[in-house]
TrEMBL record:
It comes from the Eukaryota. One of its GO terms (cellular component) is cytoplasm. It comes from Pyronema omphalodes (strain CBS 100304) (Pyronema confluens). Pfam families: DAO. PANTHER family: DEPENDENT OXIDOREDUCTASE, PUTATIVE-RELATED, SARCOSINE DEHYDROGENASE-RELATED. This is Similar to FAD dependent oxidoreductase, putative [Neosartorya fischeri NRRL 181] acc. no. XP_001258479. Residues 65-464 form the FAD dependent oxidoreductase domain. The lineage of its organism: Eukaryota, Fungi, Dikarya, Ascomycota, Pezizomycotina.
Amino acid sequence: MGNIISPLSVSLKHLRTTKSSYASILDRLNTAPGKPVAAPTASAWQSPPAPLANFCSEEFPTEVDVLIIGSGITACSIAYHLLRQDGPKPRVAIFEARELCSGATGRNGGHIKESPYNEWARLVARFGRIAADEVVRFRMAHLKNLLELADKEGLREVSEAREVETVDVYCEPEAWTKAQQRLREWLDAFPDEKGRWRTWEGADLKTKFNLTTACGCITSTAGSLSPYALITHLYQRLLTTYPTLSLHTNTPVETLQGTPVDPWRRPISPLQPYSVFTFTGSSATIKATHVVHATNGHVTRLVPGLKGKLIAARAQMTSQRLMPEGVGLPGGADRSWSFCWNKGFDYLTIRPDGAYMLGGGFARGPSEGLEAMGNAKDDENTIYEAAYLGGLLPAVFQGTVKGTVIESAWTGTIGFSVDSLPWVGAIPEKVAGGRRRGMGMEWICAGYSGEGMVNAWGCGRGLAVMLRNELYKENASTGVPQAMLITEKRVKKATVEMMVEDYLD
Ligand SMILES: Cc1cc2nc3c(=O)[nH]c(=O)nc-3n(C[C@H](O)[C@H](O)[C@H](O)COP(=O)(O)OP(=O)(O)OC[C@H]3O[C@@H](n4cnc5c(N)ncnc54)[C@H](O)[C@@H]3O)c2cc1C
């Protein structure tokens, strides 16, 4: 999804001049979203829906070692790495509020793309050089890891997973100058990457990329896939292979209670500390030793201590077809595109069947994106953003793209981390609302700020390792960058104000 921080920061900066509006937007950002709304917009990836879309395992488990809340790529990665690992197999239950994979994973752009040159300097300023390098390398490894996963599981074709040449298009001189400067600095710091990145200007823009209105572009490597197909097929494999896994769709977790305590405040049953109440028409209860919040922008509903640290934001996607009289973009499905502006950017992947999956338009609405922040209602489209996306390609590729038809438009929820890095690990008890625990813990794996395809699989794998280390006293390394781990100190430090001050001042 990309960097929506900068337009947001501009809007907030404006707002600071009118103190009451600023206070009211901060208020909204500090409020937890409701549970996922019923009847969300349908994404093109979900047509047709996966056979498991409304699946429920026959038995409703009453006790498990690990309960995972959510069923997107994060939950799948955690379950996959818990179960595919040699050794004992934990009892795992996955509870999903709506259809399987109906959150951001089933409705995103399918773009596996880290833009290190745009991110790195900001990461260095905030977390230091070592941490920034670690984060960027971790993210860049996702392309290879996801393609290897698709190969290993025989899902390359069905998931449309492939490497593509990616083009960052700059149409505004200021943004283009800044991008070249950032790319130079980043390549100086990562000399092994030289040769994989190239800048283009002048006549090449027209002859090689059909670009008539751009100042310049940068090419490198990225990936494209259908995350919905990959993840729903992986669930199918896991369910048929591991009897200790159960999956329950349309099963929202309504409340979470800690270990019941005796009159002396000692846990009554330290082995099964958490009771989780679900509501599926009638109330049901499950006892779980460990509970994982893999709920993306909805985390703060059950983890109020992260309010104002992890914010839901609504993002717009479209699937478009070229009008027959136009010429397709050069490179077809073997290229992906980002259209980078002074404020934010838009992103395009092209499916093998010719569908143009174009997302973004953030900040093109009347309040420069502010109405999207703190908004987890993916049951409606944002008309301004959809209209902008409908006109984008003919405007950028004037003369070749003669027009497009929007075949479908949908929205989804991003889990936005205010300090820009995901939150991964055992949630400090205070942050989890003071719920008492016995032998188990509450865990989080969320907050990819719109870049889940280069964060979620590795974060989920790391979280599974943490859980196995805890359950079976294994001692494996997690591979998760240190700066992404959740600690009380980091939670305290991360504020919405910090995001606003840091990004544009
Ligand atoms: C429109 C859009 C476009 C995007 N494009 C890209 C892109 O091109 N590239 C990229 O890298 N990233 C992109 N992203 C971001 C990426 O999709 C996400 O970061 C990633 O999918 C998050 O995966 P997840 O498993 O953590 O969360 P999700 O897939 O959102 O899964 C969380 C699940 O939790 C469920 N849930 C919530 N509360 C409860 C509850 N109380 N009980 C039970 N279940 C609950 C939800 O229903 C949901 O299914 C995009 C996001 C959006 C919204």
